[in-house]
Amino acid sequence: MSVNVSTADSNNDRRKRVKYVRSLDQVEQLSLREKRDLAAVSERFVFRANDYYLNLIDWNDPADPIRQLIIPREEELSEWGQLDASNEQSVTVEHGVQHKYSDTVLLLCNEVCGAYCRYCFRKRLFMDENDEVTNDVSAGIEYIANHPEISNVLLTGGDPLLMSTRRLVDIFEQLRRIPHVRIIRLGSKMPAFDPFRVTEDEVLLAAFRKYSRPDQRIYLMAHFDHPRELTEHAVSCIDACLSNGVICINQCPLVKGVNDDPDVLAEMYSRLSYIGCPPYYLFQGRPTEGNEPYELPIVRGWEIFQEALCRGSGLARRARFCMSHESGKIEIVGVTDEHIYLRQHQAKDVKDLGRFMVCRRDDSAFWFDQLEVVDQLADLSFPT
User: Fold this and answer.
1) Number of domains the chain is built from
2) Beta strand segments in the chain, E
3) Is 117 a member of any domain?
């Protein structure tokens, strides 16, 4: 059955429940030809959305940024990139458990998202043949309990807020029995895709109050990509999190056709600071299979980022521009006529932490592996 998403609600009688669509045939705004041309794309890289989010699209604008974010494009089928562009498999220590940085562990505890961003770097998780995600986190909980260096646990996947509240609260409770786990992070785009998931769930909000403690906080790692996602309902979602003890910050990639405009990025950063969800990371897009139409070169990304940071208050300028590389988070710290300057902000190998690298400027390079390193030195602020 088709879901009519032709007109955005403009009055106060708005739905509190969204209706999910899992086929392009259910999106009535797409022509029969578009559905036919995009069928092979959605078969390769799965499509999922809902009426609330689809209503944010200006269907009269083929270049609408929300459309670019959620509706497939034929260019996704070009031969380009790898499914596991940062080699996450190399840091997988148990089924559904990644341990890349000494103090942080990822629990891949859900294999579904509220909708699927076309530029997703983990789209492999949503393919039938993939089994990296686990519904049983017991091995992960045991691993975390046996590693006292772990202070942060990130629940991700997939989107943890799409799990049942009962299961999510059970994970909170298990993690809070481990004294050295001080921070629980929720990596989620549900405040953008379906803010009612939070605002309409009193049991979840009560769990936030119980398990986000003065010295052991829950952090929402929100994922807003464009200021048009910051609807009144999304703002209410962030407010509900804050009011119930959750700390909110935002991280997102730089995406061609979505937020690759200094004015757009600056507006989003300012509005995020106003609502108490300041920017944390801006990521250079990973070279993931299917993502070529959404990628930008590093130098162009740096220019956009710097122009955006020239506007807004200091709280709107807190993001770091990084590549989430196999070796760790590599921060782009400067570009000159001749060079690109990088710093290993996080590192899989602790000996690389803080390493400063000078690379030859290449305006066509979109990833660290394409750059020529001409000089490097250890950061003396870190022990060697």
Assistant:
1) 2
2) 20-21, 49-50, 92-94, 97-101, 104-110, 152-157, 183-188, 218-222, 247-253, 279-283, 320-325, 328-335, 339-344, 356-360, 373-377
3) yes
Question: End of a domain among 55, 77, 99?
Answer: 77
Q: Note down the domain range covering 118.
A: 88-377
144 burial (CB, 10 Å; 0-12 / 13-18 / 19+) is buried
Residue where one domain finishes, among candidates 54, 77, 100: 77
Give the position of tokens 């730089």: 254
User: Concatenated DSSP letters for 227-274?
Assistant: GGG--HHHHHHHHHHHHTT-EEEEEEE--TTTT-SHHHHHHHHHHHHH
In a shared domain, residues 67 and 96? no
The C-alpha atoms of residue 217 and residue 141 are separated, in whole angstroms, by: 18
8-state DSSP, 332: E
Domain identity same for 42 and 110: no
Q: Tell me the average pLDDT of the chain.
A: 93
pLDDT tens digits for 278-295? 999 999 999 999 999 999
pLDDT in tens, 40-58: 999 999 999 999 999 999 9
Residue 43 in domain = yes
What are 150-159's pLDDT values in tens digits?
Answer: 999 999 999 9
Helix (H) or strand (E) holding 22: none
Distance (Å, whole) CA 271 – CA 277: 9
226 and 295 belong to one structural domain: yes
Flag whether 8 is in a domain: no
Indicate whether 295 and 356 sit together in one domain: yes
Q: CA quadruple 220, 226, 227, 230: dihedral positive or negative?
A: negative
185: CB partners within 8 A, 6+ apart:
152, 153, 154, 155, 218, 219, 220, 221
In a domain, 291, yes or no: yes
Name the amino acid, one letter, at 91: V
109 & 161 share domain: yes
pLDDT for 381 equals 57
* 56/92 same-domain check: no
d(CA 382, CA 384): 6
182-214 residue pLDDT tens:
999 999 999 999 999 999 999 999 999 999 999
Percent composition of the chain: helix, strand, coil (DSSP 3-state, to 5): 35, 20, 45
Query: Is-contact 85 288, C-beta < 8 A?
Result: yes
Phi-psi label, residue 146: left if phi above 0, alpha if psi -120 to 50, beta otherwise: alpha
